[in-house]
Structures are given as structure tokens and as C-alpha cells.
Design a protein that fits this description.
Distance between the termini: 40 Å
CATH class of the largest domain: Mainly Beta
Low-confidence stretches: 1-27
Largest sheet: 8 strands, mixed
Shape: elongated
Helix content: under 10%
Mean pLDDT: 91
Radius of gyration: 28 Å
Number of domains: 2
Strand content: 35-45%
């Protein structure tokens, strides 16, 4: 059945609704890690923040911060408006690149302009992981960019917090804005993020105020983020048995199918003595076995097996 979702607008006009949908974006959700590394280049931020990323203000060493608006429209390096926004990457451009050159760039970043009333301190780029179960040895790398050099620099801290609503964040490394261009930042988390069954937050956050007391703050950005980790190789076992007649004789050329926990299906044919074999089946999952043979009926044609070790006697017998 196909479910349709309807949006009703009341006091907002269609034009205003369109403006809100295209000009701003609030991102919710978290990342379920697959294979290493997880990467994000942010080139699609014109459509909104990637899943798992938020931008925040009011962040402290004990507070995640409040989700802020991300402006999805292209914003130039010279903009003095305090905001998180869609900027061109510094890669391939210079501080003198024109607005037209910046807007023509398909290499995009999540950028931040701090002001006296916006994000200084407390601005944060935040990555949320759903969990890290079965994964270890996490390390982060990203480009930290200064897009507009002003008189006041800001130091950002890479830190992490654990749990759905963390109240403690542990710093790992820092980076400070400066001259136009990119700095590659790396952060090794050791064992701190290993095998967490709940959410993990990684922040790039301005915990302290910008330097100096007068003048404007730098415009900064993050780009080309990569989170590497180790996943243990899954253990495997063998699953085997026989297809037998009612009097115990092996039945050849019977077809045994195995469907694993991910819905993948494999087939095995019995040999002349009725034996079948499935090799290298991932341990810990539940599999479904079915047997069929022309003209024959079986007392238990389907069996459900939880694999914790080699299973060698999963047999089928005819009436």
C-alpha cells in the first residue's frame, strides 16, 4: 500500500512557504555507520544539511547547544551576516575570487560567520552517530577553512559526548582560524568511541570567544570530512546435514535453500548420499532452511536455525 503525505498551509502563503523551504534548513537524524570510512563532502548543502549533521549555537563544555538555522542559498565570502550558510570551498579559489566565481563553484562547504550576537562563543558544527556497536579505533579528518580573514580569530575545539543528551564533552584537539585557505585537522579518539550502544556526538565547537575586542570575526567552514574506524571481521560457520527417505537412505539432487537474516538466499544440492553443505555463513544470525525434491513430501520441509557454531546435523526426512 502506498502512503501519501499531505502538507497543509494555513496562515503562510504559498510564496512564504516556498521561501522557507528553499532559504533555510534544519536537519534532524543521525548516521548509522556502514563500512569505513564514513565520508561527507558537503557539496549538496544547497538542498540542506546532510543527514546526521546539525549546526548549533549556545554550545558549551557541558551543553550540546541549540539547533540553529542553516541558510541553503549560496553565500559569498564577504557577507557580514552572522549565520551558518552554504559557501564555496576555499579549494580552487582565492580571497579575491568574485561572487560570480564563488557561486559557480560546485565544491561547497558548511560555513559560519560569527558576530557579536551570533556564535561567539558557542557556535558548533555537530555530527551525530546512532551508535558504534562492533566498531573501534575512530579517527576524524576534515578541512578547516578560513574564507574571510578579519581582525579576530577563533579557536575551535574538536570534542565528543556520549548518550542521547550528553552533559560532558571531552576535548581532543583544536584549530584556529587565520589566513585564507584550508588546514587539515585530524583527531584520534583512541578507544573512547568504541562499541557504544547509544548516540555519539562529535563537535567542532567555539568554546571560547574570538581574539581581540574590536573588529569583525573570521568566516570559517568545514569540508571533506572523513571518519575512519575498524570493524571486526565477522566469524563464519558451516551449516550442513542430510536429506533422507523415511527408511534413512540418502536422497540425491534434492534442493536445499537457505535464507539469511538479510534476506539473501543460497541454494545447495545434495550429493549421492543425501548430504548438503553451506560454507562461510555469518555466525549469530537466524537462517531459514527449506527443502524440495520432485515427487517427495517432507515431514518438516522448513527449519529455522540460530547459528552460534557449526551445525552439521540439520536433516530433512520424507514421510
Amino acid at each position: 500500500m502506498k502512503t501519501q503525505r499531505f502538507i497543509k498551509t494555513s496562515s503562510l502563503s504559498l510564496a512564504a512557504t516556498f521561501f522557507l523551504l528553499t532559504m533555510t534548513s534544519l536537519t534532524w537524524g543521525q548516521i548509522s555507520l556502514g563500512t569505513s570510512p564514513f565520508t561527507e563532502n558537503f557539496d549538496g548543502v544547497g538542498a540542506g544539511l546532510p543527514t546526521g549533521f546539525t549546526v548549533r549555537t549556545g554550545a558549551t563544555a557541558t551543553n550540546l547547544g541549540t539547533t540553529a538555522t542553516f541558510v541553503t542559498t549560496q553565500t559569498t565570502f564577504g557577507s557580514a551576516t552572522g549565520q551558518f550558510a552554504n559557501y564555496a570551498s576555499a579549494d580552487g579559489l582565492t580571497s579575491a575570487s568574485t561572487p560570480a566565481q564563488q557561486n559557480a563553484s560546485t565544491d561547497r562547504v558548511i560555513g559560519l560567520r560569527q558576530t557579536g550576537t551570533f556564535g561567539d562563543p558557542g557556535a558548533a558544527f555537530v555530527l551525530q552517530l546512532a551508535k558504534t556497536t562492533g566498531k573501534s579505533s575512530f579517527s576524524l579528518a576534515f578541512k578547516f577553512q578560513t574564507l574571510s580573514e578579519q581582525t579576530r580569530d577563533t579557536t575551535f575545539t574538536v570534542d565528543y559526548g556520549l548518550g542521547a543528551s550528553p552533559t560532558t564533552f571531552t576535548p581532543v584537539t583544536t584549530v584556529t582560524s587565520g589566513t585564507f585557505g584550508s588546514q587539515t585537522v585530524t583527531a584520534n579518539f583512541g578507544t573512547a568511541l568504541d562499541n557504544q550502544s547509544g548516540p555519539v556526538f562529535i563537535r567542532i565547537v567555539a568554546l571560547t570567544g574570538s581574539s581581540g575586542t574590536t573588529g569583525s570575526r573570521d568566516t570559517v567552514a568545514i569540508d571533506d570530512l572523513s571518519l575512519a574506524f575498524t570493524s571486526p571481521t565477522a566469524a563464519t560457520v558451516n551449516l550442513s546435514g542430510r536429506v533422507l527417505s523415511a527408511n534413512g537412505r540418502g536422497i540425491s539432487r534434492a534442493v536445499v535453500s537457505m535464507t539469511d537474516g538479510d534476506g539473501n538466499r543460497r541454494l545447495a544440492f545434495t550429493n549421492n548420499f543425501g548430504y548438503y553443505l553451506f560454507e562461510n555463513v555469518q555466525v549469530g544470525q537466524t537462517v531459514i532452511l527449506d527443502v524440495r525434491s520432485k515427487w517427495l513430501s517432507f515431514t518438516q520441509p522448513t527449519q529455522v536455525i540460530v547459528l552460534t557454531e557449526d551445525a552439521t546435523t540439520v536433516n530433512f526426512r520424507t514421510y
